[in-house]
Fold this sequence. Notes:
The complex is a heterodimer of chains A (239) and B (750). Chain A has 239 residues and is mostly helical.
Amino acid sequence: MKGTTQSGTTARPTFDQLFRQRSHGFLSKMGAWECCAGRSIQDLAADLVVWFGRFPDATKLLFRLNDHHADSFTHCANVCLLAAMQAAHRGLSHDDVREVALAGLLHDVGKIAVPTDVLDKEAPLTRQEAARISVHSVAGARVLAGVSGLPGLVLVGAWEHHLHHDGKGGYPRPSRNRVPHGVSQMIALADFFDALTTPKPYRTAQPLDLVLQMMREREGRIFRPDLLHSFFEVIDAVS
Amino acid sequence: MFKESITKENGIRSMKQTSGTQTTPEKDQELGLAEVVARLNTARKVGEFCSCDHPRCLAACRSASQRAAGMLTGSEAMIFSGATGTISTGGQSITLSEPYVSDYLSALHRAGIDEMRLNAEATPEGLVRFTRLICAADNRSADRDEIRKLLEGPVAEGIRVTLGPSARPESEAEGNPPPGSNVWQAAVRRRLGHDPAPGTDNGDFDDGPAVILADINPVDLARLINSLEIETDIGRISARFVAPYLEQTFAGGLNRDSMVPRRTIVRFIHLLRELSPGNQLRFITAALETSHSFTLFAAAVLEAVPIHLLAEVFTGIRPEEHTVHPRIVERFQQLVRLTGHAERDNEPEAAETEGPRHDSGEGNLLTASVLDEMPGAVAAAPDTTDTGQRATAGPGAEFSATARRRAVLRVLLDLFERATSRQEAETYAETLPPLFSEALDDNDLAGLARDWTDLAAVTARHRETKPQLGQALEQIRTSFLTIQNLEQLTVIIATGSDEDRNHVCRLLPALGDRAGDSLVLALIAARERQHRKRLLDAVVSLGSRAVPLALKRITDHRWYVVRNMIAIVRETGDRQAAERMLALSRHPQFQVRKELMGALLSMGHPSGLKLVGRGLRDGDSKMRSACIGLLGSHRSTGSVEMLLGVLDDRTGKNKPFSQAQKASAIWALGQIGDPAALPPLHRRLRRRRLFSASNDHALNMAILRSLDGYPPEEAAPLASWGVDHGDDDEATACRRLLGRMRRRTKGTHR
């Protein structure tokens, strides 16, 4: 799905509209969720989207991502909300929740550098194609490092969201053993969950139980246990 | 080739591209900063400048800058020299300071700047900017020569005249104000919010330094003053501003109606801390002259200057050597007594449990409100156990400022390592100094030290291919080296946790001599033995770099300082430095001589044994005992003969050794364990004196007990002899000894 062109008859939506439009499905699914302070997911989303408006350079990047690959934008919006829900559930401050959300929103912005035919390929990926996809975390961090005024955690989330919790695996290959930051792990959980529960050109959406089971199997190695349990609590509250 | 001329269109100066020869600069007209910047921008357009790294663009920018600078008059050039920040040109930001500083400087040089008298022609803003430029540039080797050229000429003279004792030029005092003096006064009034009606100025207003103080980073200014070796009376002038204010503060709370802004006072205190000891002395002398309430002002001085610096100033520079009024000397000595350092000279170990005032936080007389404004200034020692770990508990722990910084730094370093172009590497390198500045602002020194280690490792890996990180590192280092930070580092080393101390010690070598110097000063001032030990270890960890710092102070008149310096040299094991310490062998203080002998012995220096031999022949019994102890600790077979000489009372013309000293020598021989000492000892055991049996008994027992230190196979015959020929006590001791020897040779243990 491509965005509107400059010469098109329809006006380009604002970021606010685009975000609401793309996260509509997710918001309706998660409608029952309430954070500790009694705020609904809709309230949280409304607050976040206003705050995101303070980063025009970042939203420009997201428009570009939407133009390049609309499903990736939707995925980013979902991860943004899921990460924010986790952060709010863990009792982080309002500002921290916002930063986590922004980091989630921008975590896959590096997919601009990945061709759409690779992103949407139905057949299994070749080694070269997989390598091309895996550059998106580095590419994202590179792009975001050049955007002034962004919170530092955004850069961290983009770089580390495919790193394993045990510091031994994932990509980009860590130069030294290191445990990813909590924000990267929250994004990783949200990323995994949303990727598997959303239908893709190459497979259907997986059932919730199966996805949760798969996550449990990765506890301690890929996902940090305390954050995983916290994530399960969020999903329990919704379901 | 483009040529420029200056035209005036619609009241705005601009440069136009023309052909032909370059026009003469309009020296008689003054330009504002905005116009100069506009001119610079136009010049850039002429040079078709863009901000990329292409050599052609760099060269174009360089020549355009030179042309622009070459067209300025002296005072305009001063303004121009201040344009070393970021200038926006049509939405594009250009950072001027980095590669072009030397070009600017040479252009200024050519523009005839060294023919003008700064205090007469330059505006305060110009001087401020020029000073900033020098301060910003003096760390880069490429600029050093240019700066030297400027500073060797009349420019330095101009600065000296402006900042030095005659802040007000004579011509002005005679009613003939030089050009620019009106600008000075107007600027001062603006800064101080003090705008008297025209004609009411009483002329008693030392304005230049006040403006400079208000506008320039005091640390930079102090560096400039120190580097030019200006004997400035800025202390006198500032004291006149600050003294009444401080006194009012202490006497009855903050006087908010004071004409001196609080910011100026804070900056003044910073400046004072950074000035050279000579200038600090001048300040103190002036302060004592002008202060109405000596005690209160003395308290202010104590607050303004770190205690160890004060100690250095007071004791390193003798007031009696300066031409000051006897009353001042008297007051000076009173101030010395107030600091407690006079007592320290006599009783170095007396107050082991009391920390220095800046450590304990006691006696801080400045109000907290003023101290709060001083970045990095702490009224009491920081809670280092909490450093960088404030939010380690709870879900928000990893969202603490420290954890965030660390995560971001790691990503930036990873990005830097993967950077494929110079520009990309520069982008990442530029983002690093602000991260470290944040850490500094948060006083997270331990975290900073940890991050520095990571940064230095990556820098070392890419030193050749990507030098940008090295530049960032240098920038961070420069910004880090403030007195306040160094003080905090020493506090962490002296009182911090082991982990924090280790981090800081790793940071020290990178910080260079200034950090080492700060540590040495703190070592001198430290009163608690444990703090001294930690600080000494930290200084020694600097390795060979610590040696010059120590040698610099071996002529100090305080014996305990000299002793500490000897200890530093001893720990570093530098034998060349040991040569330079030999002069101390005639030091009047016994402890110094003793430390020197111990150091020389432990370093294996041949003079060590010679000095000890001389000490054994000394008339002073304390020295003899110390020498015997040193020989025992040293455990060198070369000293056996000397120790046997003690037993034989080989003292020359001096009185014989005491029994305790002889027993000590026997113990020392046992520590050495050289079998060559056994036959003489055996002879001594066999020699019994009829009338001094009790003394002989004590010494014999000492000999038999010391046999434990010798090889069992060598000592056993002597012990057997003791069993057969000794009295009851001796025989019992020998039997036990033989039992121990047997167990030892069989390899059995209890």
